[in-house]
Amino acid sequence: MEGKKKVLGEKKNIILSVLSKLGFIILVVLCILSVFSLRYVFESTYKTPMCSFNVGMGLMGLLICTELYYSCMKDRDLDKSSSTKPFVLVIFLLGASFALLEFFWATQGYPQFNDLKYVLGTLNNGIELFLVYSFWDYVRKLLRIKGELERLADIILKVLLVPSLIYVAAGMRFHHIFTLDAEGYYIRSDEVVYSDYYLLLVTAIIIVMLIMKKEVFNKKGIVIIFILIPMVNYALIDDTFIAAQSGAILVGVILAYIFIFSKRTAALERKESELDTASEIQTAMLPTNFPYFTKRKEFDIYASSIPAREVGGDFYDFFLIDDNHLCMIIADVSDKGVPAALFMVSSKTNISNYAKKGKSPAAILEGANNEISSNNEKMMFVSVWLGILELSTGKLIAANGGHEYPAIYYPETGYKIIKDKHGPVLGAMPGIKYEDYEIQLKPGSSIFVYTDGVIEATNEAEELFGEERLEEVLNSAAGDDPKEVLETVQKSVDDFQSGVEQFDDITMLSVHYYGFDDMDEIKKNNEITIDAKVENIDVVQSFIAKEIQGISYSNSAYTQLCVAIEEMYVNVASYAYPDGVGEVTLKTETDLAKGIIKITIIDNGIEYNPLAKEDPDVTLPLEERPIGGLGIYLTKRIVDNIAYDYIDGQNVLTIEKLMR
Question: Does residue 583 surpass a pLDDT of 90?
């Protein structure tokens, strides 16, 4: 339904744009024809100076209408404002009326055109009445003038417009506004002044309303425009300068319009500057410097966001929680424009802060939702997909808060959209619970997440891009790196909605998981050689802590590893070199995929196999047990494998520990 409304709106805007350009072309053509009519009048010996003046005034009025029409046509509110469109239509009609009135004055002295002259004169007077009311309507809506006084004034003007139009229209039958003599010359009656009461009333109301809007306008400028011009108008009303009335009315309107439009232009420029600043701030909050993780070989990531307006409500984020866990976020705020951008900044900050605390995706969404809901007076909400990828294993834990389904790629099956577990959007109400779900990525797999701007993109035939078409496009880019995948999808969406303006923000994020297929990359071998002193145990522990950063491990496993290494190292430092201080070397071999670390301790001291010592009988009371052997016994119990060998005059002790 929303897609159909969007397409209908686009078609309406296209039709309006074509009609507005056509109207401008017609006015330009009439201006050109009017110039030729002036030449005809000036060259005719039959025409009087009064006739020539009025033809010239008609041309001036037509030129003013054309310029005013062009200015309104360029007005950014034309496509959506209920006040601009009637104003533009009346300007067009008045311009056409001026062109016809030129014909009226050029045919003075031809009685066969008398009936037409009555029609044209009445039409011109009626359009003047519509002009002043539509200008009032344009001003009050444009400047958002509201209140009881404004509503009362609008009712009065609407009510009085009807008898004013009837009074003018009756002039065709009763000739109480103007008449024609036997030779077809125009004669103004004494009752003409009554046809201008409506103009005076509108003028007075606009003066009052604009002065009340004092923070926008200069009072003196408004008074000059809306009082001086009508005074000049009535000073020129006589049988000599008949066309000056319409010209004076129009001059007053266009001067006021220019004054208003200049103020609006300045305000729009300030607004554009603010939007540009907001857009820059918003862009700066998103990671955009790709490739982003240049030193990581396990994965590749790319993201993009194209807002439908200057600023959007979509956002994405990604960061390493630790050396082995990549957090990915994509979200869509319920609104567009600046309000959505502000809500987006707040939501992104809350979600990212909770994610960096090391919680599960479901717990992150629960905490962020409570935070967002607690201060959400405008009742906005945000849909979020959040996933945490364990880089050493490819295990992806994710939670979905009312967002679009992700698409997963496996080399053997291609891209498939996964119907994952959905929870409510964030911001709807506090206390909502979310569920984690797990996806196992294999080396060569990818994940693609997106906002609804992708699948709800609409073409001229009112068709949605849809999930099926998205799967087809993704599979056409199967095996490509994330950047190429996003570029392929974006191009397909652009081609699909060609001719239709983008309605919603389009945001996408893709991660390709390479894993650790190559055994040379699976294991990293490092070593450290130090003096075999007990006080160097801190150096040993720091070395081990650095080596296991790429492994997903539990706190208990890490504690057990530290105890085992400390026991074996202190044993070497205390007994390997009885005659002095020697060296000890520690080597590590880490299997990131399996989560196993192997540590080898090598020394050149006296030959000693700690595993040969008999295990103590822990069932005996403490006072009956022989001294020694308990540390080695404990080490054998808390590691997964331990071995000793004496090679080339060196003691070689190897410990393996599964860290999960």
Answer: yes
